[in-house]
Write a structure and sequence with these properties.
52% of the residues lie in helices and 15% in strands. The protein is of the alpha+beta class. The strands form three sheets. Strands 8-9-7-10-11 form a five-stranded mixed sheet, sandwiched between helices. A four-stranded antiparallel sheet has the order 2-1-6-5, sandwiched between helices. Helix 6 runs antiparallel to helix 7 and helix 11 crosses helix 12 (344-351).
């Protein structure tokens, strides 16, 4: 049953007064004032209102001999009130202060306004409930807690989600460290700006958003193309646009991981793990932020799977030798060389060194480790060693 409370009705008292030109009193079903033109009366018991709610005569009565009201309880303001019926049940009483004969017509308008206001509140509550339920449903999809096929189909139909559509999962994390001095309200506004950016790019009905308490935002998106390769290109472009939007428009550092496509809803938990793994590997082996696709990080995934028995091989043969010779700059040289996809000129330019100096460093790496960057087998092992160093710190 709908209930009237000060939080619901008190903010609208001034509007009632302006529209009806009478002071207003609203009580709940127990006769306690929940809305009043005089806020000091809130939560006070209104005996006459309670009598009317119980379908009895009010305490005060009209004395014909004196042409006035008698037995008026202390604190009661004379007027006229009627019970409010909502969804077939009495939820309280609304009264107007003034001469009863004058305000009987206005009381109907007051009742109608209250009912319209409660309709709006009810609709808002239902939307919030649906939103809350939908969030819980999305969490179950992400966790793989499906329940019975009948239940999951019913919920999906309720939220108009097509469970059969192929989907990608994007995990989005933003770095708020530089906003440490911002107030909670300002931080929430920054997050809402981020969510608006996501919704502006991924705006289809089937694009579903979920935010974890950790601050991680997860997007389940379904490309609209029938061809899988076209869907992939669409998602790649949209993800790149989102990353640029967050950096340039929202002014936040973002870390985005993109999964491979999953065939239907049963693949969503795996896709979530892929998106998170792509982001984690990218953060550790690259720059700590950026846009990373699971399908493009095969070497990083191989390194992330290295067991404690495998890691010492590259540690002993390459990393320890470079570190023992205080050759941190050589590790950075290797990392930049791989980042520049083996382009010598771009590597030298980014390191602010001459090409000859870069060639000298390559010879130094070979001298210390025995691995030649221009030998394919050695190159692969040097690449894996750098990734291992970045990922595990060893």
């Amino acid at each position: 049953m709908m209930t009237v409370t000060p939080k619901i009705v008190q903010p609208f008292i001034a509007t009632w007064e302006e529209a009806l030109h009478y002071k207003v009193t609203i009580t709940d079903t127990n006769g306690y004032i929940v809305g009043s033109s005089d806020p000091a009366r809130l939560n006070q018991f209104h005996p006459s209102a309670y009598e009317i709610l119980c379908e009895r005569q009010p305490i005060e009565s009209w004395d014909i001999a004196t042409d006035s009201y008698v037995n008026v309880p202390e604190g009661v303001q004379l007027g006229y009130g009627e019970r409010v019926i909502y969804d077939g049940e009495c939820i309280g009483l609304i009264g107007l202060v003034g001469a009863p004969e004058e305000i009987k017509q206005s009381i109907k308008t007051a009742q109608l306004v209250l009912q319209l206001m409660l309709d709006r509140k009810k609709a808002s509550d239902e939307l919030k409930l649906i939103s809350k339920d939908k969030k819980a449903f999305l969490l179950r999809l992400l966790q793989g807690q499906y329940g019975s096929p009948e239940w999951i189909k019913e919920r999906a139909d309720t939220y108009k989600i097509d469970l059969s559509r192929p989907r990608y999962v994007l995990t989005v994390q933003i770095n708020l460290e530089k906003f440490d001095e911002k107030s909670p309200l300002e931080l929430s506004q920054i997050k809402e700006t981020m969510h608006r950016a996501i919704r502006s790019i991924f705006f289809e009905q089937e694009d579903l958003l979920y935010e974890y308490d950790t601050g991680e935002t997860v997007l389940l998106t379904a490309g609209k193309h029938l061809d899988a390769s076209q869907r992939r290109r669409q998602i790649e472009k949209a993800a790149a646009r989102l990353y640029a939007e967050l950096r340039e428009q929202c002014k936040v550092s973002a870390l985005i991981g993109v999964s491979e496509e999953c065939g239907d809803y049963t693949g969503i938990p795996l896709a979530l793990r892929q998106g998170r793994m792509a982001a984690e590997i990218g953060a550790k082996t690259e720059n700590g932020e950026g846009l990373y696709f699971y399908s493009q990080m095969r070497l990083g995934r191989i390194v992330a799977s290295f067991s404690p028995e495998i890691r010492p091989i590259l540690q002993r043969d390459i990393l320890s030798k470079l570190l023992e010779n205080h050759a941190d700059s050589l590790l950075e040289t290797l990392f930049t060389y791989f980042e520049m996809n083996g382009n010598v000129s771009q590597t030298a330019e980014k390191l602010f060194i001459h090409r000859n100096t870069l060639q000298y460093r390559f010879r130094k790496i070979k001298e210390i480790t025995g691995f030649d960057i221009y030998h394919i087998d050695d190159l692969v092992q040097l690449r894996l060693a750098v990734l291992q160093y970045r990922y595990f710190g060893i």
